Amino acid sequence: MRLSAESPSLKFQISNLKLVFLLCFLCLLRFLCLLCFLCVPPSLLIAQSKQPPKQSPLELIVLASGGPRASARGSTSYIVLLDGTPRILIDAGANAFVEAGKLNLSLDQMDLVLLTHLHIDHTSDLPAIFNERALGASSAIQWKIFGPADAGQFPSTTKFIHSLFDPGGIYEYQKTFGQDETISATDLAITLDSPQKEIVHEGNQEGNLTIEEIATHHDDCPSIAYRINYKSRSITFAGDMDASALANLERLAKDTDLLVVHAAVLDPPGSPAILYTLHTAPKQLGEAAAAAHAKQLLLSHIPGSVEDHQAQVVPSLRASYKGSIQWASNGLRIRVTQ
Prior knowledge:
Blueprint: H1 8-39, H2 42-49, E1 58-65, E2 76-82, E3 85-92, H3 96-102, E4 112-114, H4 126-136, E5 141-148, H5 157-165, E6 181-188, E7 197-202, E8 209-215, E9 224-230, E10 233-237, H6 246-252, E11 258-262, H7 282-292, E12 296-300, H8 304-307, H9 310-318, E13 324-327, E14 333-335
Parallel strand pairs: 3-4, 4-5, 5-6, 10-11, 11-12, 12-13
Antiparallel strand pairs: 1-2, 1-14, 2-3, 7-8, 8-9, 9-10
């Protein structure tokens, strides 16, 4: 019996044949996609995955993320970028100079230095950073340096800078080694009842750069916290501080986009008692970040004793703080978003 074009049986066979062709085509397409993926060099895939996200007008680079003891993290230092250009140095502990070189950072526009305090692990690389800036400069340099006033065994920031770079200083030659340099230092009030103060104000109303400071407390070492505001974004640096200064930090960091705190101790009794006269425990840092409504929290100044117990630190912070938490690492770059 012959099947006509109108035969239901023939139509069924044709329909099945189309379905088979479609399935074969899809299988072939899937195979070709897999083949293309396998042919791409792994190095290219990795390189693509590391492409930086869209630039933010305010960025942070961690140059050193350790404590006072020798470690691969170095000590403590950060650079803040404005519109992609390194402009502000916050502390200059060991590894700052090396990491800036590793990252091939241009320091040609850097002219602001914020020193939280004058311990060695926050200042030791300052001469090397200044030397690099001078040797690579294309024009005269005008440094503005801010830091704490003097107390006890610790000099004022102006005396510290004078002893390094001014006539009779240890590195007096520095100012003759590259471009002309003008270095001005400002001493900031160090008592906890000192008012929060704006120390830098640049630019027009829409794109203002402002820097604010407030005194903190780091046992006998005068210390300062800073907040950098730029194009509706902000980063707040707590520096080394004990719990007596938390109220000041909360006020300075109110609604900040990124709060950088130093996770130098565990909750009591996990660290030696004397360290709590210098640093703030994680539980209290979490409470302060929550009270300030900080959007992101970066943990830095990490000694080995804390690094080995990170699993304890985060839950302690989470008891109060629900925002983003990140551990600092050397070379880490954070684009501050609103």
